[in-house]
Design goal:
The protein is an alpha+beta fold. The protein has six domains: 9-140, 3-Layer(aba) Sandwich (Rossmann fold); 156-314, 2-Layer Sandwich (Beta-Lactamase), CATH 3.30.450.40; 350-375; 380-389 and 511-623, Elongation Factor Tu (Ef-tu), domain 3 (Beta Barrel); 391-423 and 475-507, Beta Barrel (OB fold (Dihydrolipoamide Acetyltransferase, E2P)), CATH 2.40.50.100; 425-465. It contains 15 helices and 30 strands. The strands form five sheets. It has a twelve-stranded mixed beta sheet, sandwiched between helices. Strands 13, 22, 23, 24, 25, 26, 27 and 30 form an eight-stranded antiparallel beta sheet that branches. It has a four-stranded antiparallel beta sheet with strand order 14-21-19-16, with no helix packed on it. A hairpin with a 5-residue loop joins strand 11 and strand 12 (271-279). It is globular, with a radius of gyration of 34 Å. The chain starts with 8 loop residues before the first strand and ends with a helix.
Length: 628
């Protein structure tokens, strides 16, 4: 998934409803109205920009998409048209059902329903049960949700969350549970600090065990909002959100911090606590993955904190009984003693002891052999992309609008042939004016060749005329050599920026090839060399692995932005999640196909995946020995 939109993000807890609804609207009043209509019945996610909505539709499609009239970066009409044009609203393939919603002034997205399939136009005149019934009927017409196969990252997160939940489940009281919960939040979310508040449903108050006092009623602050909405909240900048209250949410805050807030609720929807993770303003903002980690921790901790709350409630009741001189528990013990129920002595059969001894010996021998011979490999991992080599990319030198495409993919071209043109009315008009002026000045020069001012004016005009001719020529793209057009990356009427790839050519007689470009952590550069085995994995295809050799390694470690600019260009700059410093490696593919689930598929330029290079392999014993 891409970066999150720079606005508050809300995400309903998974058990609120398996059917997720995405609301794309910049008007906070419309979002609040929909949130009130749908709370407790559907999982609701809110975004304010069209870019963020398209990211959700592409990476994690919801069941329903509700679009308002105006978003932060585009209109609702543009968002719906773009989504429909790219097949993101196809109900037959499980895509989301589209709704529009009008604001308080009655403004709604204007669309052509022959092109954009809209199920219903929502408005303030509808009752809550009517809105929910419309959404229920729309979802009922969709095919069942196919559960995605858990990834290796999901398995690692599950194991990490279970370990934290185990530690939380063994805590005897809320104070010790608070310390463990704070440590878990800091580790999972990579936070600078964390906060754990407990919630009393009867009194409606939030308090901190570390502060030792009630803080406030759950009707204020981000913590109170998370309790009432039972939703996670992500803030890229707390100072920009009016809900945030420093005294409640982050007493140590100074303003500008990044924050994620997650309620801890059981399966019945009862909230017991609120987890808050905080990063400094200069730190990276929290992502959707961070919110999911806290959701997983909250879901795993919920049963334990529910039991702990019951235990403390029972202890409180017993303390009140003892204060009234009631000795029920002691009477029960005395009754059991009078009946002679003192318990049996533990009996151990000698045969079991003998068998257990030899089983223990075999276990120790087997464990020793495993540690001595089993090997552990260390890998360097990073994102990778397939690139087609041997092509010539024709790029725009100046920005402009495409007015003519003279060729199509697969067409043969000659050297110097015009391939495409940009809008050049302004440049051509300037050239015509300079030609007219040049002819006038040339006549004046021929009449008085000895006049210095006339000669100087003609010389200056010649320079301007040559510059204008070059500008007109730059608006026409010519083939640098004879070849075949492989790809046309623009369309008529499209606005392109300088550096944008217009057309890709393959020179006549040249051979195309494919290679894998991988971006591995920069700290692994000393241990990566040419000839090592490179394993390329394609996500979304079960068992799709390609083995190849490392053919080239970058001589230096470079930053993420520099790596995108040098090796990915404008087409794939945003396609890979490159972060930090990286070393770039290349491996040549010997085949243009791969197999997955007993099927053969073609490899294509721009397909992304993950690359792994094994750095070293040692036995477990060598790993455990000091200095190993």
């Amino acid at each position: 998934m891409g970066d999150w939109d720079e606005s508050t993000q809300l995400r309903a807890l998974p058990f609120v409803g398996t059917d997720r609804i995405l609301v794309a609207e910049a008007d906070p009043h419309v979002r609040a109205w929909l949130r009130e209509m749908l709370a407790g019945h559907f999982g609701v996610e809110e975004v304010e920009s069209g870019r963020a909505a398209l990211e959700r539709l592409t990476v994690e499609p919801p069941r329903v998409l509700v679009v308002g009239a105006q978003l932060a970066d585009m209109s609702g009409s543009v968002l719906l048209s773009h989504a429909a044009r790219h097949g993101l609203l196809s109900a037959h393939t499980g895509g989301p059902v589209a709704f529009t919603v009008a604001n308080m002034l009655g403004q709604a997205p204007e669309i052509d329903e022959n092109l954009v399939p809209v199920f219903y136009r929502l408005s303030y005149s509808l009752l809550p049960e009517q809105v929910r019934e419309l959404l229920t009927q729309a979802i009922a017409r969709l095919p069942p949700v196919v559960q995605k196969r858990p990834t290796e990252e999901d398995a690692k997160l599950t194991r990490q969350v279970i370990e934290h939940a185990k530690r939380l489940g063994t805590q005897p009281d809320l104070k010790s549970a608070t310390r463990v919960a704070i440590a878990a939040v800091i580790e999972l979310a990579s936070a600078d600090r964390a906060r754990c508040l407990f919630y009393d449903e009867e009194g409606g108050t939030l308090w901190s065990e570390t502060d030792g006092e009630d803080l406030t009623h759950a009707s204020a602050g981000l913590a109170g909002f998370a309790v009432r909405a039972r939703s996670g909240v992500v803030l890229p900048d707390v100072s920009a959100d009016r809900i945030y209250i420093r005294e409640i949410d982050d007493p140590q805050g100074t303003g500008g911090e990044r924050m994620v807030v997650q309620p801890v609720a059981d399966r019945d929807g009862r909230v017991h606590a609120v987890l808050i993770a905080v990063r400094r303003a200069k730190s990276p903002q929290f992502s959707e993955a961070d919110l999911r980690k806290l959701e997983a921790l909250a879901e795993a901790w919920a049963p334990f904190i529910h039991q702990l709350a019951q235990q403390q409630e029972a202890a409180h009741i017993l303390e009140q009984r003892e204060g009234k001189n009631e000795v029920f528990r002691q009477e029960a013990i005395d009754h059991l003693v009078r009946r002679g129920q003192r318990g049996d002595v533990v009996r151990v059969h000698p045969g079991w002891v003998h068998a257990a001894y030899w089983l223990l010996i075999l276990f120790v021998v087997g464990a020793g052999a495993y540690v001595a011979f089993a090997r552990v490999s260390q890998w360097s991992e990073g994102p990778a992309v397939i690139r087609v080599m041997g092509r010539t990319d024709i790029r725009a030198v100046e920005p402009g609008t495409v007015t003519a495409l003279e060729v199509a993919p697969g067409e043969s071209v000659t050297e110097g042939q015009i391939l495409a043109r940009l809008h050049d009315s302004e440049q051509a008009g300037r050239l015509r004016a300079l030609n007219t002026e040049f002819e006038r000045r040339l006549v004046a020069y021929l009449q008085t060749p000895a006049e210095p001012s006339v000669r100087q004016a003609l010389s200056s005009l010649v320079t301007e005329r040559e510059s204008a001719q070059a500008s007109v020529e730059a608006r026409a793209f010519r083939a640098p050599h004879a070849g075949i057009v492989k790809e046309v990356h623009v369309a008529n009427g499209q606005l392109v920026e300088a550096g944008k790839t217009i057309i890709s050519l393959v020179e006549t007689g040249a051979t195309e090839g494919m290679s894998v470009l991988a971006f591995l952590p920069g700290q692994d550069r000393p241990r990566i060399r040419v000839g090592q085995r490179l394993r390329f994995t394609l996500p979304g295809y079960r068992g799709a692995h390609i083995e190849l050799d490392v053919r080239a390694v970058s001589a230096e470690v470079i930053g993420a932005a520099d790596a995108r600019e040098r090796y990915l260009g404008d087409r794939f700059r945003e396609a890979l999640p490159i972060q930090g410093s990286v070393v770039v490696i290349e491996g040549s593919l010997v085949t243009t196909t791969f197999r997955a689930d007993d099927e053969t598929y073609e490899l294509h330029d721009g397909m992304t995946g993950f690359a792994e290079v094994r750095l070293q392999s040692r036995t477990i014993l060598e790993t455990l020995l000091p200095g190993g």
